[in-house]
Amino acid sequence: MSNTNQSTYTPSTSPSPNIRATLAWVDAYNELDVNKLSALVDESLQFEVLPKSLGRPISNKEEYLTNFEKHIIPLFKRFHASSEGESVLGSVYKNEYVIFLHFVPPKEGGDGLPKISVVKEFTDSHTTLEFIKEEQARAAANAKKTVSD
Questions:
Q1: What ranges do the domains of the chain cover?
Q2: Which of 4, 1, 17, 5 is nearest to 115 (CA)?
Q3: What are the residues facing 41 on neighbouring strands?
């Protein structure tokens, strides 16, 4: 999806394998596509949300993909890795991130791209927690309204 307010990155005409893998990972997020995401991460994946004060445990590949499928996809109808999204209730979500990716070499017979083995996502924890709290309150109000209608 395109957003005119968003700056875009134009890779070189021959980006490195790590850049190609990173761009594919960003596309999978933007498309909310758990299958594409799964193909890009290694079996040894460790996904960590920082700061540690959030108390989020490090996730393995299965936990990471399950969380994406059960908590990210149902919450958003539009999501840009540029930290801009829209919830299914129409709420605007904006956040700041720094994401560090570590790669392992591609496996023989694979698609030729390195696989992501470590993701460290540093997020604005206050914004994230407030958004989730407010979105849960909106969802509860909508459910109550639907029952009374």
A1: 17-148
A2: 17
A3: 116
Look at domain 17-148 and name its CATH class: alpha beta
Q: Are 38 and 63 in contact (CB under 8 A)?
A: no
Q: Which helix (H) or strand (E) holds 28?
A: helix 17-30
Residue found by looking up tokens 């791209």 in the block: 113
Q: What is the pLDDT of residues 82-134, one digit of tens each?
A: 578 888 888 888 877 789 999 999 888 767 899 999 999 988 777 778 888 88
Among residues 75, 84, 97, 71, the alpha carbon closest in space to that of 30 is found at 84
Retrieve residue 4's tokens. Answer: 């005119």
pTM: 0.71
**Cα 67 from chain centre:** 10
Q: What is the CA radius of gyration of the chain?
A: 17
Count CA within 13 A, CB hemisphere, residue 66.
5
